[in-house]
Amino acid sequence: MIEEDRLEICFCGSGGQGIITAAIVLAEAAGVYDGKYVCQTQSYGPEARGGNCKAEVVISNREIDYPKASHPVFLLAMNQASCDTYFSDLKPTGLLIVDATLVKKIPTGRVVAIPFTQIARQQIGREVVGNMVALGAVGYLCQAVSPESLEEAVAARVPAGTEDINLRALRAGIEAAKKFDLDTLPELTMEEDE
Amino acid sequence: MIEEDRLEICFCGSGGQGIITAAIVLAEAAGVYDGKYVCQTQSYGPEARGGNCKAEVVISNREIDYPKASHPVFLLAMNQASCDTYFSDLKPTGLLIVDATLVKKIPTGRVVAIPFTQIARQQIGREVVGNMVALGAVGYLCQAVSPESLEEAVAARVPAGTEDINLRALRAGIEAAKKFDLDTLPELTMEEDE
């Protein structure tokens, strides 16, 4: 679902949660394996040390003029602080996706809340693949990449020998996201500007 | 050495050479550990499958308005095709850095040619860390990050258990780059536009 021929997705969380890797895998799935135009960005400032981490992916059917995701349609927040910080960037018609293990104060009803970290720990046995569980959910919900491309991109990007647990994590995230019916959610995350 | 308060560095090569990882580590060294403002970008188009791969890093002492490296001061080319494609982006006063193992046709005398892949194979025993050898050279030559920050960023980003070979590769790249005296190089890579 690429509205206006430009889909902006933002991944945020704390350093060490694998946010950048998840964004790169989505970008490679769309760009390398699905043949879309993609731009993937991350920025760091003096506040980056020990703090929040944000990575952006822009996917389009045409060449991309501006590479930043200033008003994402999908915002993944993997911890409370980044949810608090970046929620206001989300388009009013966008969708918030949170790690329900770590984000307890959710600022909208237009949300898909899935315990990514808990699923990684309990179903896969490795909390470190929580990012791949989240990627599975984001990839499924954004409808911009095929599951096959996501799997190819995961297998090509993760460290050799960890393909299996990463792919299992990805699929667990896809399955968890399938249980949500977006049509039952409120239409807006916040009041639109008048 | 951040000229005009904005240093643009471009990494290119073929997919699988670890170009994006090298760019991310440089970005994290400068942004997270050295407290600079950094933006790191990669783009993919329909031509990305099996082809060249390019990643960009912009480092500044101030907030960065435009995140792309349209005219890099340092261009690392890890294979011949990407050297041929991206050399013309380099600033005339910029510096070309190539993997001499794989780039045989070098379009300028203003070049630092180091056999990154061969060093990785012969000194480290793992060709796959050629990207870290190259990163060591680029990090040393661009003077925008401290060696300590580079080491911290490498250790934090590479897969657990591979820190040692990656750090050895980084240091081998730094040592190789130290042998070059940039003052003896021609001042321009190409004719400046009149």
Can you describe this structure in just a few lines?
The structure is a homodimer of 194-residue chains. With 194 residues, the first copy, chain A, is of the alpha/beta class.
If you had to describe this structure to a student in words, what would you say it looks like?
- Two copies of one chain form a homodimer.
- The first copy, chain A, has 194 residues and is α/β, with parallel strands linked by helices.
- The relative contact order of chain A is 0.18.
- The first copy, chain A, has helices at residues 19-33, 80-86, 116-124, 130-142, 147-157, 163-178; strands at 7-14, 37-44, 52-60, 74-77, 95-99, 111-114.
- In chain A, strand 2 (37-44) and strand 3 (52-60) form a beta hairpin.
- A six-stranded mixed beta sheet of chain A has the order 2-3-1-4-5-6, sandwiched between helices.
- Chain A has a single domain, classed as Pyruvate-ferredoxin oxidoreductase, PFOR, domain III (Pyruvate-ferredoxin Oxidoreductase, domain 3).
- The A-B interface holds A 15, 20, 24, 27-28, 30-33, 35-46, 48-49, 63-64, 67-68, 159, 162 and B 15, 20, 24, 27-28, 30-33, 35-46, 48-49, 63-64, 67-68, 159, 162.
- Strand 2 of chain A pairs antiparallel with strand 2 of chain B.
